[in-house]
Amino acid sequence: MNRRYRKTIIAGNWKMNKTPSEAKALIEEMKPLLSKTKWCEMVLCVPFTDIQAAVKAAKGSKIAIGAENMHFEKSGAFTGEISADMLKELGVKYVIVGHSERRQYFNETDENCNKKVKAAIENGLRPILCVGESLAEREQDVTMEVIRKQVKIALQGVAAEDIKKVVIAYEPIWAIGTGKTATSEQAGEVCAKIRDCLRELYGARAARAITIQYGGSMNAKNAAELLAQPDVDGGLIGGASLKSADFAAIVEAANQ
């Protein structure tokens, strides 16, 4: 982490878990554990059906509420989809874009991610753009070719003055929900190279200010080691964000 230049952000991704009443109960459980946070911004990205309950439960705390996905169009014949301005009116501050599960199960492309990133920014939301390689791509030694392509396409047309609103989450696909984690050195190396790519696109000053999270099975035990890497500025947390004590421990590691 480097707090001198950029924010540390710990974001939970609840995926398809928790009913509204369960969401309320979990956030109420988390609030006292997270009340003394100094340096770290905290976000809970929850299912659409939980957003209203989560915003209400988090009111008065330092927890921001995010969404797990959105459509890039403002309105129209897109049955089952939710737009950025719908999220904003509910009190959402962040939205995850391009999570590997969206890419895998719902055919989300880099081009779609680009449209979503721009729609989020235009509507005052902060996109958390997910990028990452599969196990086969890592073994073939094309990790950075894959990630550079994802970053470049997803940020195409995003103005220099807007890039600071984007959060990048490096999530190696082989480490999501598998219990496997990139070593701190692996995570740090890729996050540093992502920053190099951003430097090429937007210049050194802009790249230095962008928060880059690690998002592959970060947990209470390995958070401190991962966050000690200079280019790892937070985490996108899956399973551990559904356990108040574990999420609080990760936030505590980010506050050291």
From TrEMBL:
This protein's record includes keyword Cytoplasm: yes
Main EC class the enzyme belongs to: isomerase
Pathway in which this enzyme or protein is active: Carbohydrate degradation; glycolysis; D-glyceraldehyde 3-phosphate from glycerone phosphate: step 1/1; Carbohydrate biosynthesis; gluconeogenesis
EC number, as in UniProt: 5.3.1.1
Biological process annotations from GO: gluconeogenesis; glyceraldehyde-3-phosphate biosynthetic process; glycerol catabolic process; glycolytic process
Binding, substrate: N13, W14, K15, G177, S217, G238, G239
Substrates-to-products reaction catalysed: D-glyceraldehyde 3-phosphate = dihydroxyacetone phosphate
GO function term, MF aspect, one: triose-phosphate isomerase activity
Main location: cytoplasm
Localisation: Cytoplasm
Entry keywords, A to Z: Cytoplasm, Gluconeogenesis, Glycolysis, Isomerase
GO cellular component: cytosol
Any Pfam family matching the protein: TIM
InterPro entries listed in its UniProt record: Aldolase_TIM (IPR013785), TIM_sf (IPR035990), TrioseP_Isoase_bac/euk (IPR022896), Triosephosphate_isomerase (IPR000652), Triosephosphate_isomerase_AS (IPR020861)
Active site residues per record: H99 (electrophile), E171 (proton acceptor)
HAMAP family named in the record: TIM_B
Subunit and partners: Homodimer.
Family: Belongs to the triosephosphate isomerase family.
Protein function: Involved in the gluconeogenesis. Catalyzes stereospecifically the conversion of dihydroxyacetone phosphate (DHAP) to D-glyceraldehyde-3-phosphate (G3P).
Protein's recorded name: Triosephosphate isomerase
Gene that encodes the chain: tpiA
